[in-house]
From TrEMBL:
<comment type="similarity">
    <text>Belongs to the ATP-dependent AMP-binding enzyme family.</text>
</comment>
<dbReference type="GO" id="GO:0005324">
    <property type="term" value="F:long-chain fatty acid transmembrane transporter activity"/>
</dbReference>
<dbReference type="GO" id="GO:0005886">
    <property type="term" value="C:plasma membrane"/>
</dbReference>
<dbReference type="Pfam" id="PF13193">
    <property type="entry name" value="AMP-binding_C"/>
</dbReference>
<dbReference type="GO" id="GO:0005778">
    <property type="term" value="C:peroxisomal membrane"/>
</dbReference>
<keyword id="KW-0443">Lipid metabolism</keyword>
<dbReference type="Pfam" id="PF00501">
    <property type="entry name" value="AMP-binding"/>
</dbReference>
<dbReference type="GO" id="GO:0044539">
    <property type="term" value="P:long-chain fatty acid import into cell"/>
</dbReference>
<dbReference type="GO" id="GO:0005789">
    <property type="term" value="C:endoplasmic reticulum membrane"/>
</dbReference>
<dbReference type="InterPro" id="IPR025110">
    <property type="entry name" value="AMP-bd_C"/>
</dbReference>
<keyword id="KW-1003">Cell membrane</keyword>
<dbReference type="InterPro" id="IPR045851">
    <property type="entry name" value="AMP-bd_C_sf"/>
</dbReference>
<feature type="domain" description="AMP-dependent synthetase/ligase">
    <location>
        <begin position="134"/>
        <end position="488"/>
    </location>
</feature>
<feature type="domain" description="AMP-binding enzyme C-terminal">
    <location>
        <begin position="577"/>
        <end position="652"/>
    </location>
</feature>
<protein>
    <recommendedName>
        <fullName>Very long-chain fatty acid transport protein</fullName>
        <ecNumber>6.2.1.3</ecNumber>
    </recommendedName>
</protein>
<dbReference type="InterPro" id="IPR020845">
    <property type="entry name" value="AMP-binding_CS"/>
</dbReference>
<keyword id="KW-0813">Transport</keyword>
Amino acid sequence: MTASEFSVDNNMNNTDVKNNKFEVKEKDIDLEKGRSRKQGRKIPWTKIIIAMLALGVLVASGAIVWVFQDWQTMLQVLAIICVVYIIGFYWRWLYIAARTAPRDFHALYCYIKILLLTKGFTSKGYSMADIFHDMVKKHPKKACFLFEEEIWNFQQVEEYSLRSSAVLKSKGIKRGDTVAVMISNCPEMPAIWLGATRIGAVCPLLNTNQTGNTLLHSINIAKCDAVIYGDEFETAFQEISKELSPSLKLFKFTRRPLNTSPDAVKVVESQNDFTSMLESTNPAPWTKSETEGFNSKLLYIYTSGTTGLPKAAVISPSRMVFMASGVHYLGGLRKTDIIYCPMPLYHSAGGCITMGQAFIFGCTIAIRAKFSASSYFPDCIKYNCTAAHYIGEMCRYVLSSKPSPTDKQHKVRTVYGNGMRPQIWTDFVKRFNIKRVVEFYGATEGNANIVNIDNKAGAIGFVSRIIPAVYPIAILQVDRETGEPVRNSKGLCQLAKPNQPGVFIGKIKPNNPSRAFLGYVDKEASDKKIVRNVFTHGDSAFISGDVLIADEFGYLYFMDRTGDTFRWRGENVSTTEVEASVSRVADQRDAVVYGVEIPNTDGRAGMCGIVDLDGTLDLDKLAKDIAKDVPKYARPIFIRIMTSVDMTGTFKMKKTDLQKEGYNPSVVKDKLFYMDPQLGKYVPLGVEEYEKIISGRVRL
């Protein structure tokens, strides 16, 4: 399969943009217990003595000048000495401040604009449908969505959403109900959830790749009252129909032009045909949303987080506005932009950030059903796009596609997204003549987003070195083995120093929309993402689970994940959950899962070591069974058949040594297998196959 034919499905997650190595000094880590020691604060006697001597010299100099001259001359001398002292001892800080001040104050200006925008929506008690209605009133005939050969103006999108509101209301959906949407990329998808949220419902956006137990879990965890699903997913729902609640209302959506003429022959495919209901129902009259306002629940967007099955992250109108406006203002987007979006609309990147450009700012969005590397810039030409959305994997595939005259025939001024690898950044910008890359970072469930606002190659954002308290994010020292922050003798967290890896956090302030942490529907899962007693006793922060590094200018670079999680194809893969699934289908054999690197490939591929003492493991059956319950991106690429697995004292399987050995048959003495993408099954991995994988001749 060529890069131009490759299709990916990704979300607002980051791919590795730095060297995935992390060194921990032994003195900071209790290697036997696997956790950090609390470090006491040493008194800096050297600095205190130097300061006292400097103060003494200053006082003595002033006294001498006053005695032999006058007090005005003394003030001049003191001022000169102070300036010399500051330059002599703080010249580096002054240099950094001079270099970064334009960046920091521009970001501060944009941040103030974001706060003013959110303040206005808060005072009006707006939900997203109300914000969108203001855009409809401003330019009803302006193109809102471009899709294939269709043009949907703002008025048409709102009319479709009002029909959805009317249909759902007639079916008993009311304020506080949960209506999930599982529809592929198309203009109707956001219009439907906009209609549902208008009447006070919360809309979980189901990942269209989910099947079996994963899909069932996503429906149950959100406590859905209804699900609207595309007809292409009917088989997936039939497979779990017996396990769904009898009270769950299922509506099947079939994409076709609505025939609303009273004389038209109605096509009703089934009793739950949502499309025919839309055709036979008049749009509801516009009224203000029946919600609790700007800070109410709007969407649930599923993320694997750092552990377990998909979790439903809560998105409020305020959170969506904060994410979208941050990229809009800090990324230099314009209300006149036409933005290309090949991202799945069920994730926060496409569904919140890019949809927000239309709903909040009135931009035009060109939606593609599914990403295609060879069509990326030809589509931008077709729709006359001036901005485009990406993720790191997409950029690599587009760059790997065959050079074409269309590479520079487009009008794309800005591309924004996350995961642009430093190794391809310059080549991508040069080949496709991109003036600005707006790399951003932020977890769907988090409360902090950062943006690269000045084209710094490889950076995912920055922390200010001169006004750090304005936007309270930080990089904390972290114990890589446990994922816990390193604390000092007072029990408080310690900031990572420049060029020292640490975990990214966002300080929580519940009453501030930009700093509130909404977390997940599952409170227990939410609590696991909160770290307490961070800078002062009693405070708290969202902990991302991502290891970043900041240089001396404050630019941030993504490094890796903490804990038992790795990324593959832009998705977070929980090793704990995959281990449980593999062990279950392998007759409860011990299974240990970890991520391994493949050269020139983003993230880490899954590898699973399975204990098979009697040689009876059927790999063909294993592959089929895993495919039923485990999402494609989480399925192990490599299999290692073992006779035993080392355990810790607390009966946790050790995987560090296995990860270091990887899948090199010259190093590993156990039998190795890999998933052949053409055959769809595990085949033996020998030296010849290994060389093909390493060289890129076999793509996994």
